[in-house]
Amino acid sequence: MKKNFLYSTFIDNDSVFAFIKAILGVFFAFFVVYFILLATGYKPLPVFAALFKGAFGSRRGFGETLLSTTPLLLGGLGFAVAYRCGLFNIGLEGQITMGGIAAAFFGFIIPEINPVIHVFICIIAGIVAGGIWGFIPGYLKAKFGVHEVISVIMLNHIAFKIAAYLVSMQGPMKDKLDDMPASPFISDSAKIIRIMDRTRLHWGIFLAVGVAVLIWLLLFRMRLGYKIRAVGKNPFAAEASGISIKKHIVLTLAISGALGGLAGAVEILGVHYRLFAAFSPGYGFDAIAVALLGMVNPLGIIASAFLFGILRSGSVFMQAMYGVNKDMVSVITAIIVLFMGMSVPIGIMLKNRIKRNSNGTVD
Amino acid sequence: MAAIVKMQNIVKRFPGVLANDDISIEVEEGEILCLLGENGAGKSTLMNILYGLYHYDKGEIFIKGEKTTFSGPGDAIDKGIGMVHQHFMLVPVFTVLENLILGSEKVKGLSLDLNSSKKELEAISDKYGLEIQLDAQVSDISVGMQQRVEILKLLYRGADIMIFDEPTAILTPQEIEELYKVMQSLRLLGKTIIFITHKLKEVKEISDRVIVLRDGKLIETIDTESTSIRELARMMVGREVLFRTEKPEVETGREILNVKNISALNKRGLPALKGLSLNVHEGEIVGIAGVDGNGQTELVEVLTGLRKISSGIITIDGKDMVNKSSGQFLDAGTAHIPEDRLLRGLILDFPIYENLLLGFEDKAPFAKGLFLDFNKVRSWAEELVKNFNIKTPGVNVNAGTMSGGNQQKAVLAREFQRNPKVLIASQPTRGLDVGAIEFVHERIMDAKKEHKAILLVSLELSEIMNLSDRILVIYEGEIVAEFNYGEVTETEIGLMMAGGEDK
Prior knowledge:
heterodimer; A: globular; B: Rossmann fold; 6-stranded mixed sheet; 17 helices; globular
């Protein structure tokens, strides 16, 4: 009974397999980079040590690690929710952008008020804006059968262009007193408070972890999540049992986009305090890797977002110490993603082997 | 006659199961040998060993008197052994001809020399009466012809021992007849056929000898002539099997399902139902007989909210149900046993308890506010597993790992739990063995006793004949004939099914 409880509470049936795959993927990525470093004339082990030292070795470094973990975690959760419904939301970068725009707007347009209320308003604005940016491809898919990958790519570009226009020279959100292509700074009451001296770390990280738990509950404990997973695994059976495919596609993409919007809002309110055209350095795309490495399970995503946070913040120190270009970290990320993707065929191969062995007993 | 294949003392062990327990068989040249057994009896395992797909733990194999060991199907093919699998291995976008020569193409300069192969293949096709259109694209030809293409492929590669793995499971009655003809001509021309099946009727119709397997053991080798279906069933299942489910006397009550003049399109946008009408009363089983593809699938989808109608009336217990959603149909009191349990019935990657929950997730006692009480779901699932005798190590096991019979029991368990007014059962025994069929039929009779209205759609005519109080014959989207139980013979219905006569 106890084993059953553990089994079904934290793990679904495929996740032991996925976990091994994830660990192997990370290991393999470092393994490959080890040889790349060797071949390019670096000493790999000290470089790796610098990577981790950068991420953990100082107060500031650790703060930066958790700081970039935050949007990666929220974005990863957004990708995971959609993925569980059989949808591939590569539009998170656009949804993050829209969330950031909305949060920035309410951040500077409202003068100093009660900070709790102000932050709350801005965050809700970000969630709604991102949610709308997710709802649109969901609606297009449900109503007209437009594939979500196509529509979100276009919506990404639209979002980037909107952001760029808003803070351009003639843009309505441009700060007239500043030459920078950026919006005015948000009111102090809209800023998310920092939680660690001499770092930029703010309480958004706790919010993100809380949201991860919430999304876990949604997926594995709530009625809605059960239906989302049912549609994702077999829409035909779900439909036959009275679960509307279209409704859940729209709803899921809206939730997914809302999580992106939240990530964008938190970035603006906690880090930048104003809107730039490209304030998100690709968090929405890294979110895909985060979610896949995290076995599309919110609890796994907490761990993988943290790992990606380490890589992002540690890479700066690594570059400073050894002159290894910090894009080497992108190579690690890429190899992890490649391995996670590659292991789909590997997984099928393994499963077929198992099946071949057990089929004789079933047929 | 000499034994062309001899398998001696074959033992094959899978983790936790002894799939073949010391099995010895002999196959004589030029015979049709049936390998009969329930799902899981070990017949496919034994044949996969003969075909070189599995290695065996113990035993010896002799082909044409010569001791042989196979390291893979390639070796078996070299020895003249061929296998027609349940799932065809054809490239849908290639023509039949291109499929047949795939892997042994003849080349003329830079281009393929299709003509010489074509002549050769045509000759073989004619010799055995396969009637194959070599130039047709595989995706355009019927399942029956695809199967014959597989047969031709084996002949082209020189097979003289042919293994058929449950070849009739996917065929219509007409196609089965055609397959039998092909098998007869193969035998006449000296080929040896091993036929894997769990259908007793087929054994009697086509085979010369039968080998019965049960739980991995050889039960009996017997001449088909000297045995009966009843005896074969007993050997296969290990107990007496009732072939006629007891038909309870039930008073029929008020009309529950009423369908008038409905028309609907199929998924390709062509008319599938053309002004079809029917009704079903409480305590009544109405059977829909017909050849596959005459609108049965669409009818069932329309009656479960999965397909829209363009005109007509549907009511359930007086309530208008035209173009309502699948959820609204469930709420109005329908339960649905889908024709394809893997597609519509179950979510294979979900554990059993989550499969049993489908359609109940918003209902008490499982729904608690926004949440689901999974402890309740699990204990309820355990109870259903017990009541419906579903064989599984536990309710956390994925549905995809269960056998077909147990999967169907799970679907049944869930649908009966809905306590429906009307049960729409579409091919409820497709692909099941006799034991499981008996179980399904008994449950349907139980539903009748409970005064449910039941619409039974099946391609198995004998199933329709045995269970139904009224039989409707569907042909090209219309009901073309109606009979009461016992008023009609199988031949008469067969004629109507083929659209042969008017009302």
